[in-house]
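I am still getting used to backbone structure tokens and would like to learn alongside you. To get us started, please write out a protein record for me. Once you have written the record down, we can walk along the chain together.
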Amino acid sequence: MTTFADTTFTPPELIRNFCIIAHIDHGKSTLADRMLQLTGVVEARAMRAQYLDRMDIERERGITIKAQNVRLPWQVNGQDHVLHMIDTPGHVDFTYEVSRALEACEGAVLLVDAAQGIEAQTLANLYLAMENDLTIIPVLNKIDLPAADPDKYAKEIAHIVGCEPDDVLRVSAKTGLGVEALLDEVVKLVPPPVGAADSPARAMIFDSVYDTYRGVVTYIRVVDGKITPRERIKMMSTGATHEILEVGIVSPEPKPSQGLGVGEVGYLITGVKDVRQSKVGDTVTSERKGATEPLAGYREPRPMVYSGLYPVDGSDYPELREALDKLQLNDAALTYEPETSAALGFGFRCGFLGLLHLEITRDRLEREYGLDLISTAPNVVYRVVMEDGTEHVVTNPSDWPEGKRAEVYEPVTKCTIIAPSDYIGAIMELCQGKRGQLGGMDYLSEDRVELRYTMPLGEIIFDFFDSLKSRTRGYASLDYEEAGEQDAELVKVDILLQGETVDAFSAIVHKDYAYAYGTRMATRLRELIPRQQFEVPIQAAIGARVIARETIRAIRKDVLAKCYGGDITRKRKLLEKQKEGKKRMKMVGRVEVPQEAFVAALSTDEPKGKK
């Protein structure tokens, strides 16, 4: 086995940088495992499935969340080459991880399941790769499955990529069939990196993670010059300077080296404890005689979905703040700011890229930091223009401005849905019910169709994906990207318990769906809140107008139990006395809402905008 950790620099013409683009469960991590085994960088006894997926949550769910890079030695015709492979996530919520990986590569392996065909999210990542002028190597995986139909899907991929069906490679990542040929093809087709070895050093940061013992570990791709240990470097966007303590390669465990040259991918450690000082997309250069022009960076990931995270036990608030601080170091797309709720106490308003991102973040906070959390119903960012011309940005229903509103703008997205043509009617019905507008429709093959819709983001983030899957028996796939904003008739629905607004249950919905949301929430709370000693009205209201009402009946104590026979006036006197007590109780009593009721009422099992 050849290791390159000891050599000083590898000539750029022997380097190939590539990433793997694939949908969830199309065999991306399995293919990476086979490559690690074939190139000999992982010994057989140390091998485990999904080797590059480091988090327990990735292994359990079978998804990749963080892009991982690894250096592989490979020989073609007796010549040693160095392959840098980046294993990227497949889910739409982690597209920002993919876009960063694409900047560090010259080629991409498009991996498609031979039993399912290309999916919408893979298509979106493929277009990203094409925009970056990457060399695409189309590959069909799982050809050993009985349900595989490689000829049919090879035609479909050839139609999209613009190649011949025979050019599509066929492999089985599970058995290792065709993986060697794929690596040879990578060496043959992917162009070597281009850069000036004698120019001032320029390297792009494409990822950074936090290590408890060593501080920030920054992953870089060197474009020009070289990066060596013990030299002082400068971050071009922040101007911060540091001394490099260690430079190395990842193969697949970190190995220190004497430096990184043009086209090489590796890591550097400066001992800094604050990840914000090594921003993803920044350019690293030498402090003395450094470069003057930074490399084109990435656009900052913008949160699409907001949700409040509150600790069940209020005393855990400092622990939650510390946990979010640490998690943000490993996840550049997570944003948060403190907020308070009258019902839930102190917590944080967090911004996420999508529902899966929210779910994974909450899961990691509970698992890795031992917290017990309540998350409020997710909502998107609205822009409200008042009649006097003032503007408000609303990320939380409690920020909804009072007074006369001239216009309300909501974010819209461009959705791409790929599904068998039998389900076109069901998909169109669902999208129109969610205020979608059809933008176009294309047949990828005789029985697979691509539909393009413009839809409000607020309609997608609840249960749209689940409804789409159930209507198409799991065959449809969805991808969406932001597409500006539109004017919409939106209202804020408040839930009142005994006349008092409970801010945690408020929501911003379209006028047509307000009644359905109010009725469902009132009915749900009636079942969840325990009965009190007095009658409790639950109301849903838009401003001062009540649109739905349910009542929790009082628990009535039997005051006549001690009366056996006797005069009716005696009984009436006792009942009147009870009635007076109930009236007084109703005035001073506050409704106790148990924690379980919040958790159950805020869970998004049911759609918000169901008609």
Residues 365 and 371 are 6 Å apart (CA to CA).
